Amino acid sequence: MPLKREGLIFLLGIAALAAAIAVLFLSSTTEAEPARLAVRFFGLYGYLFLSVATLTTPFLKEVTQAFGKSFLKVHHTFSILGIALITLHPVFNAVERLSLSVFLPNFSSWDTFWRLAGRPAFILLYVAVSAAILRAKAPKYWRFFHSLMYVVLLFGIVHANLIGTDFGNMGILLIYNGLFAASLAGFVLKRYRTHIMKKR
């Protein structure tokens, strides 16, 4: 099936959003340190595409019809892109700091845990990904662990709001908090649709 008008509009919307983020990113950049720029870039775009992948989940039928491809193919394309980009975020942070501690959660205080909440988010991300990969072997449990993606997004947005350099830019602040709010709305919609289907 060919890509339909709705699918094209969706892709153009994502491209426009990505371009807007790039403009805001560049407009608030005053540093020239490559590793620091990479940390910020991969964090922003990794979170963007993970959010887009999550937002597609309540719309299995609509996504399939709009893209002319199976839902999983579309969902996995955005997911893989998001996972790859967000993985490079701590990798470049580790390179910048010359330390692997950036991969380890910090429980020294409540404030520190949330400021560095990207660390446990990174671990939970791969738990959620592994659950999807192993879903055939654990059909009763994989959905629960895969739904940890919403916790990943929560930890990520708190971390970004607290210490994200680019979140001093109002445009980026609004875009990313909006993406998280939309993800939560998608989660509620998905659970509501599941509840309605079970009642039929």
Record the SSE blueprint.
Blueprint: H1 5-27, H2 34-56, H3 60-67, H4 71-97, H5 110-115, H6 118-133, H7 142-146, H8 149-163, H9 170-199
Helix pairs in contact: 1-2, 1-3, 2-4, 2-8, 2-9, 6-8, 8-9
Name its key features.
200 residues, single chain, mainly alpha, 9 helices
What this model shows, in words?
With 200 residues, this protein is an all-alpha fold. It has one domain (5-199). The protein is 76% helix and 0% strand. It is built from 9 helices and no strands. It has helices spanning 5-27, 34-56, 60-67, 71-97, 110-115, 118-133, 142-146, 149-163, 170-199. The longest helix has 30 residues, at 170-199. It starts with a helix and ends with a helix. The mean pLDDT is 92.
Quick synopsis:
The protein is mainly alpha-helical and 200 residues long. The chain has one domain. The protein is built from 9 helices and no strands.
